[in-house]
Amino acid sequence: MSKPVVAIVGRPNVGKSTLFNLLAGEMISIVKDTPGVTRDRIYAEVNWLDRDFTLIDTGGIEPDSNDIILSQMREQAQIAIDTADVILFIADVRQGLVDSDAKVADMLRRSKKPVLLVVNKVDSFSKFMPDVYEFYNLGIGDPLPISAASRLGIGDMLDAVIAHFPANETEEEDDDRPRVAIVGKPNVGKSSIINKLLGEERVIVSDIAGTTRDAIDTTIKHDGKEYVFIDTAGLRRKSKIKEELERYSIIRTVTAVERADVVLVVIDAVEGITEQDAKIAGIAHERGKGVIIVVNKWDAIEKNNKTVKEYEHEVRRVLSFMPYAEIMFVSASTGQRLIKLYDMIDIVIANQNMRIATGVLNEIMAEAVAMQQPPSDKGKRLKLYYITQVAVKPPTFVIFVNDKELMHFSYTRYLENKIREAFGFKGTSLKFFIRERK
Ligand code: GDP
Ligand code: GDP
């Protein structure tokens, strides 16, 4: 299931960050062992009335002149148009309607994306409502008054957001073709990989889909089966500001990963693995997607009989939070091992969808418990009653215990390893929920 993406656009100081933080709440830092990603307040998971969506703040740096404000707003708006299902255009009732608002509103209107005009800082409806009506002049629909600071109007705004989401059964979900996102830093060879795969197969099926973001998808037929590649390199953005480029690249990655079943994290063999690679891989890990680490430009490396081992070791060290991911050494230039990606993609998807019968799971847990005693604290020992798989993509398990506090992270890891020993689950993370049963 791919989650809808909602993007926030607006001038500096209208209250974008305040609204973002309010909506993101404590959801921001759920995963502690993923480096980097959770600290960036660029995107967050939000839940409203049983609908989950990814919220993106497209605005980053504080510009210091009006010219820069307008060009930056255009840039933000373009990112939102490229990536979002619904755009929240935030204005400020206290600053009133300004020229740059009108220009950006024009741009958003032309994109035909659903846009909600949100007028913030309406801390008192009775006092400020007359000023809100002025925003009708933007021609992008009814202004929704809110106060992010006093939490007014937020529920009505979220209702309006959700009303624009595709119905639960979207076309994408009916579509059972594997969806593969190719992510990675600039210049690691993402486009080269796609182009080479296209060249090998010589079959291009054009995607005619409703939304603009699908325009960057490439469908490739291999062995009679179609694969949809979501390429984050396809859209390039020019910006002189490094932070802005990075923000853009993270937003592109998040939205591509969101729509994918399997993520190919491409790494440049010549450059070696870096923290930035870990940050990108972390996005796929956090979302529980299938992951394949693709070390590209393998042709350009001087090799001896230790090179692969050393390389693997270094990749595992930097990406220690995803030991389950398969590593492949390829070359987009020579085509070496690229064809094998398809088999790996199929395997990872099968593992993401694998369901283990409850009886078998409980046998494995009983055996694991017999081999290594569960932890205890102050004379009380952890008891594990029952395990069952409750979901796929990623495979998710619930373990019922006597006392949650006694279930150490390391013991969950131990059980995870036992389950992996039995079933592999290569390429996919596993999720565990611990519940108490008295
Ligand atoms: P951003 O630059 O668009 O991200 O704006 P911020 O979220 O940083 O907010 C800019 C300023 O507006 C801060 O001083 C906030 O405290 C203030 N602010 C945000 N929302 C509201 C609101 O609903 N009412 C009032 N009165 N002030 C707000
Ligand atoms: P992207 O920004 O990730 O899409 O990277 P590109 O596909 O544009 O590739 C960046 C540069 O790396 C180009 O100059 C490519 O020719 C080069 N490149 C890509 N793949 C390989 C490879 O497998 N081997 C070598 N030697 N160079 C490669």
UniProtKB/TrEMBL annotation:
Q: Which InterPro entries match?
A: AAA+_ATPase, G_ENGA, GTP-bd, GTPase_Der, KH_dom-like, KH_dom-like_a/b, P-loop_NTPase, Small_GTP-bd
Top-level lineage group: Bacteria
Q: Which residues bind GTP 1?
A: 10-17, 57-61, 120-123
Protein keywords: GTP-binding, Hydrolase, Nucleotide-binding, Repeat, Ribosome biogenesis
Annotated ranges, domain EngA-type G: 4-169, 178-353
Q: Does the keyword Transferase apply?
A: no
Task: List, in alphabetical order, the Gene Ontology terms for molecular function in this entry.
Answer: hydrolase activity
Task: Please indicate if the UniProt record lists GTP-binding as a keyword.
Answer: yes
Quote the record's binding site residues for GTP 2.
Answer: 184-191, 231-235, 296-299
Q: Where is the signal peptide?
A: none
State the similarity comment: Belongs to the TRAFAC class TrmE-Era-EngA-EngB-Septin-like GTPase superfamily. EngA (Der) GTPase family.
Name this protein carries in UniProt: GTPase Der
Originating organism = Ohessyouella blattaphilus
